[in-house]
Amino acid sequence: MKRIRVSEFGGPEVLRLEEVEDLAPGEEEVLIRVRAAGVNPYETYERAGNYGANGRQPPYTPGSDLAGVVEAAGSGVPGFARGDRVYTTGTLTGSYAELALCSPSQVRRLPDRCSFAQGAALYVPYVTAYRSLFQLAHAAGGETVLVHGASGGVGIAGVQLARAAGMTVIGTAGTEQGLELIKAEGAHLAFRHDGPGYEEEILAATGERGVDVILEVAAHRNLARDLRLLAMRGRVVVIGSRGDIEITPRQTMLKDTSIIGMLLWNTPPVELEAAVAALNAGLENGTLRPVVGAEIPLPSAADAHRRLGQGGALGKIVLVP
């Protein structure tokens, strides 16, 4: 089997293809033939050695999201048969590979209406967005939600989830194509975040009231401005940040607003199960539709990481073995 291996921290070039013997499942393991593997921003931080205590140490195979078919299951794993279409909420051996081992609790049935590429775009983006909106910010129908970086994987998930729950959705992107994608996926309004004055446009669009919830994927750039955009008792959920930023704490006092940190790996098992159940329902009824922006061959994993670093995402990047 072929897999991508990180043997040392560094730039995208440390993602190297190697060939090893096929994996075999243990008694409590499921072996999956990978048809598509999702590429997530956290994997670029981990590869560079910038993911802190949650990052793995080399050597390792990156990735947690994949979709494929069951190749084999251990004797202690009931309910899975060879050929079953599945997606994962994590792996034991990494998803950037032709084969991956998972624990049974990490393997989920892939709805028939989802392609393998869409299945690889599910776990990290959609559970992150769901947990941020509903389990942490407690967003509700009738509220106004601002999704930063709404044309990326987490952003599109946030837009679709918020719209399906009856919220007014505002999205930001850095390109005109991104704005069109955001609106096509359900945003009521879309603004460019790469120019001056977009905060004033958002405030004007809300009648100067502000927004109730912000999903923030670049807190190192936007958090100080986000606090100005919040309505009374508004909440900003910090999903991503690549550095430090100075804020004025008094801005949180003026409107009783909250800054909530979010890390997917902290999700309690019972809340993960609730999120996955909600996502499966949305996939089955068509309200959730993962958008795949690019399918890149597994040997070109380094190119996929470079594309993530360039920004301007239009949907999810997946690797295809």
The gist of it:
With 321 residues, the protein is α/β, with parallel strands linked by helices. The chain has two domains: 2-122 and 290-320, Alpha-Beta Complex (Quinone Oxidoreductase, Chain A, domain 1); 125-265, Rossmann fold (3-Layer(aba) Sandwich). It is built from ten helices and 15 strands.
Task: Give a description of the structure.
The protein is an alpha/beta fold and 321 residues long. The protein has two domains: 2-122 and 290-320, Quinone Oxidoreductase, Chain A, domain 1; 125-265, NAD(P)-binding Rossmann-like Domain (Rossmann fold, 3-Layer(aba) Sandwich), CATH 3.40.50. 31% of the residues lie in helices and 26% in strands. It starts with a strand and ends with a strand. The model has no long low-confidence stretch (mean pLDDT 96).
Give the full name of the CATH homologous superfamily of the largest domain. Medium-chain alcohol dehydrogenases, catalytic domain
- Tell me the series of helices and strands, N- to C-terminal: EEEHEEEEHHEHEHEHEHEHEHEHE
The overall number of domains is 2
Task: Give the termini distance in whole angstroms.
Answer: 10 Å
Count of helical segments? 10
Main pleated sheet: 7 strands, mixed
CATH fold group of the largest domain: Quinone Oxidoreductase, Chain A, domain 1
Which stretches are low in confidence, meaning pLDDT under 50 for 5 or more residues running?
none
Strand content: 25-35%
Measured on Cα atoms, how large is the radius of gyration?
Answer: 20 Å
Shape: globular
Q: Please, what is the average pLDDT?
A: 96
User: What is the percent of helical residues?
Assistant: 25-40%
Tally of strands: 15
- CATH architecture title of the largest domain: Alpha-Beta Complex
According to CATH, what is the class of the largest domain? Answer: Alpha Beta
SS-based structural class? Answer: alpha/beta
